[in-house]
Amino acid sequence: MKCELCGDKSATAMVEIEGSMLRACSKCSSFGNIKYKIQTLIEEKAEEKNITIKLPPARKEILQILVKGYGRIIKGAREKANLTQEELGKKINEKATIIHKIETGHIDPGIDLARKLEKFFKITLIEQYQEASSSEKRYPKKSSRLEIWQG
Predict the structure, then answer these.
(1) Rounded to the nearest 5 degrees, what angle is found at the Cα of 18, between the Cα atoms of 6 and 58?
(2) pLDDT tens digits, the chain, 151 residues: what are they?
(3) pTM for the full model?
């Protein structure tokens, strides 16, 4: 495993540095908080013993994605509320041109603006997806090394 900071080939720990998890060598691990120690095994020894390794629960990443057709949804909600683009812009403190570009699909609203529109119109524009993971992993026979995370 390579150190993601200096490129050294002996990464020994997973380190949290400014909110990011990185593989780091013993020198670079002093730049952050060590979360896990990494220990590698040779594939042949793991295959001989038919190892199944239980991993600590993985951090699940939550993705926030705009729904399809968000421009039509916003335009429909605005028209239902009998507001012009200029009036809506004034009410949510945005320019009318931004509202127009979002409704026509020329730009995507950022998460903050989408949340603002969701709250104002009581509609859903952002869907959240969470990646599922297993705490038990069986390693394939063709890999060159295994990693065991110790926490």
Answers:
(1) 90
(2) 678 888 877 777 888 888 888 888 878 888 888 877 766 544 445 555 666 656 566 667 778 888 999 999 999 999 999 999 999 999 999 999 999 999 999 999 988 999 999 999 999 999 887 765 544 444 444 444 444 445 4
(3) 0.50
Domains present along the chain, CATH in parentheses: 13-57+134-150 (no CATH), 63-129 (1.10.260.40)
Tokens of 113: 């603006």
Residue 34, classified by CB atoms within 10 Å of its CB into exposed (0-12), middle (13-18) or buried (19+), is: middle
How many Å apart are CA 119 and CA 108, to the nearest integer? 17
